Structures are given as structure tokens and as C-alpha cells.
Amino acid sequence: MKLTLEQYRLLPSDSDVEFYNLHGYYVARQIFSDEEIDEAIRGSERFYAGERDFHLHKRLKPFKGWKIGDGEVLRINDYVSLQNREIANLAHHPLIGAIAARLCGSSTIRLWHDQMIYKPVDESCQKTTIGWHTDRAYWKTCSSVDMLTAWIPFSDCEESMGPLVVIDGSHRREGFSELRGFHNHNPSGSNAGFETLYREFDQVSLNLKKGQVSFHHCLTIHGSRPNRSNVRRLSLSVHLQDGSNQYCEYKDSEGEIVWHRNDLLCRTVDDRPDYADVDICPVLWREEPSPTGNSYSGGVGSI
């Protein structure tokens, strides 16, 4: 879980953290080498071919996502890092956790879950859109509102490829935490008043280079446009929880208890899902002394 001096230099500065708090997203410099990303691509190819290094609990079989035989369509697969070694090496990298810890002000970062998305070439521009949503809308059983997501494209991701798009500063705007348009191809979503927000706030396309990683707050509205390029777009979203996060019972408007897939995977403590289960939600970062002898959170700006 230790970082090299070079990796410490890649952590966000105080001004970077201030930018994240104001805008709801942050783009890191290149933190993965071409070789590390290429290894993850090989892992993805093995995964798509049906190979598994580890197996999820049988209760999650209905949520196994894209599989061989589904064809050349938008592929969405969850918990890939719990099934594939190469993806685990990427998703569980301590630098991902250390950057997230710095951004959200937590001494500990755990994995929440991950999601690999493959966008084929979409000439119709109607099949590979990810609609506007907040991650928090899908994490209602979580006590924390400081959770965040790291987005890792597996190649240079230009505008035509349909990169992640965030709505600048939307995490500070009340009334949109319930936006659940992930599967809605209409970019306006279905939330009343969203059109006003859509016009008032800037949309920022995160056109990242191979090896770069972006981070966004769980309340930041985001989505992605179709892949209009002539090559496929592959990426991994690593969802992260700060150390304070724990399960809290949540009921919908009809009084039904809401559950998350983690509730089926994690061990239970006192009949409650334990979101600190090291087998499902491993610790990616815990604050340790930096090479300068100081806490990394206190000495980053001067490294």
C-alpha cells in the first residue's frame, strides 16, 4: 500500500483539491503506463472470452452483464475486478485510493465496486449513450455522501469516442441527487427541472490520454455520448467509498427496503451488510507516512 516518491508527486495538490470541491471532478496526470493499461486490455479480452480467475457468489448470477452471444452491443459488466486478475491490478492500485483519499479528505479508501463498459462503433448514434445520472442515486444504502468514482479509459479517448461528460459544479446543486438516467438514451433525463440545470451549467468532456484517470464526486451529474469513432471504446469505472461509509437501511417512496448488489456479496455483521468486508470491498489506501517523514496529506503540496 506504499507509494514511491514519483507516485507521491502525482497526488493532487491543495489547489487540485480545491478545484475538485468546487467543480465536482478532477483529472489526474498519467498515472498508469502503457504497459499497465495494455495488460488490463488483455485481461478484458480474457474476461469477454468467458475466462474467470475468481467467481462471484451464485446469488449475483442474474447480474452477470454482457456475455458471449449478446453480440456487438454496449457491454456493461460489474465486479470485473473480483473476477479477473489484470483488472484487479488496475482497479485496486493504491495510487487510485491515495488520490481519492486526498480528494475526499478521508484517511481510508475502500473499493465499492467496479464497472467495465465497452462501447462498439455506433454509426446510428443511438445505442451507446449513457444517460445523465448521479452515482449517489444508485447508492442509497450508503451512509456517506463523499463517495467518488475513478474513470479509466483504456486508450486515448477523444470527443468522437463518447468520453465521460460531467456537468460542472452540479454536485453542489440541490434537487438532483435522485437522477437515475443511466439507461436513458435521452440526454435530458427525466428529472423535472433538469433542462434548466442543463442550460445553466457547463458540460465538460473528459478527453483523457491513455494512462490518465479522472475522478468525480458521487453527486456530480454525468453521462457519456455515443461512440461515433471508427474504433471501440473500453473503460473501467472504479467506485470508491471513504472509510466512514457503512450500510444504512433505506426505503423507497412506497416503503419498500432498497438494496444494493453489495448487500448480497458482503458478509453480514449483526444482520447488516458489512461494507468493510475485505473480500468484496478491499482497502485500497490507508494513510501512512510519506517518504519525507510526514503524513502524505500534510506534505503533498511541498513534494
Give the structure's gist in a few sentences.
Strands 1, 2, 3, 5, 8, 10 and 13 form a seven-stranded antiparallel beta sheet that branches. Strands 4-9-6-7 form a four-stranded antiparallel beta sheet, with no helix packed on it. It is built from eight helices and 13 strands.
List keywords for this structure.
303 residues; Jelly Rolls; 7-stranded antiparallel sheet; 4-stranded antiparallel sheet; 8 helices; globular
Write the layout of secondary structure elements.
Layout: H1 5-8, H2 14-23, E1 25-27, H3 34-48, E2 75-78, H4 85-91, H5 94-104, E3 108-119, E4 130-133, E5 148-153, E6 164-167, H6 194-200, E7 203-205, E8 214-217, E9 222-224, E10 233-242, H7 262-265, E11 268-269, E12 272-273, E13 283-286, H8 296-299
Antiparallel strand pairs: 1-8, 2-3, 3-10, 3-13, 4-9, 5-8, 5-10, 6-7, 6-9, 11-12
Explain what you see.
The chain is an alpha+beta fold. It has a single domain (5-290), classed as Sandwich (Jelly Rolls). The chain contains 8 helices and 13 strands. The protein has helices at residues 5-8, 14-23, 34-48, 85-91, 94-104, 194-200, 262-265, 296-299; strands at residues 25-27, 75-78, 108-119, 130-133, 148-153, 164-167, 203-205, 214-217, 222-224, 233-242, 268-269, 272-273, 283-286. Strands 1, 2, 3, 5, 8, 10 and 13 form a 7-stranded antiparallel sheet that branches. Strand 11 and strand 12 (272-273) form a beta hairpin. The longest helix has 15 residues, at 34-48.
